[in-house]
Amino acid sequence: MTRTLGLIGSGMIGGGLANLGVAAGLDVVLSNSRGPESLADLVARLDGHARAATVRETAQDAELVVATIPLKNYGLLPADALAGKIVIDTMNYYPDRDGRIDALDLTEVTSSELVQRHLAGARVVKAFNNIDFRRLSTSARPAGAPDRSALPIAGDDPEAKEAVTRLLDVLGYDAVDTGSLADSWRTEPGTPVYVQPYMAERPEGLGAEETKRWFWETPGVPVPAARVRDLVGQAVRRRAQDATTGGTAS
To answer: pLDDT, tens digit, for every residue of 167-189?
Structure first.
């Protein structure tokens, strides 16, 4: 089982995974584009169970690496340092943030296939891209818990998917294998399994501050594996449309 989890990106999803990793007893290595010194506060909050490093050091030192940065920056991931690694891709395509990417707009490839092409020597697995960062942190449950949720994963390498499945289990989630990286569009923004199933129904008429409080304080809705499979099966592929970030990838 993976003992050292590396995070390239320390935003909302990255911070949530760092917390889950530390709670599960993993060694966590954090990095971002601003350098290790910018992570001092986050490392301090993780109470000595995490350390900050450069992106390249994280890629080299971690047994399993999570890439959780804006998709528009995927080309900055150090392909040479990540060669031979399992890389979890949490990134989603949001045209309003990332700019237009013709191959994605025309559905010629998935975003994870683009990442895999860049990281030719790594084994990429799509995961953690369909749940908002708050529910990711608060919905984790021990194995066998009746209210445990499942998250979809996709990848081309069976052994890599097995390793990611074990990581999800340690962090508090079941995994549902949804196929190859070419199939990973089934969990992208706008699909039935994206974000909303894990959230309670928001009351109508909330103001801005009330909505913010509701988002932070409202528990997630359990989504078991069978429900994830059903929702993934309902997905219909359409050409990319403008989307909001929905509180997922950093």
So the answer is: 999 999 999 999 999 999 999 99
Burial of 229 (C-beta count, 10 Å sphere; 0-12/13-18/19+)? middle
Alpha-carbon gap, residue 193 to 233, rounded angstroms: 9
Domain extents in the chain: 4-233
Furthest-apart CA atoms within the chain: distance in Å: 51
Q: Report the distance separating Cα 95 and Cα 106, nearest Å.
A: 13
Share the mean pLDDT of the chain.
94
Question: Cβ neighbours of residue 39 under 8 Å, at least 6 residues apart?
Answer: 10, 30, 31, 32, 52
**Contact in structure between 160 and 186 (CB atoms under 8 Å):** no
- Radius of gyration of the chain measured on its C-alpha atoms: 17
- Spatial separation of the C-alpha atoms in residues 128 and 249, rounded to whole Å: 8
Superfamily (CATH H level) for 4-233? NAD(P)-binding Rossmann-like Domain (3.40.50.720)
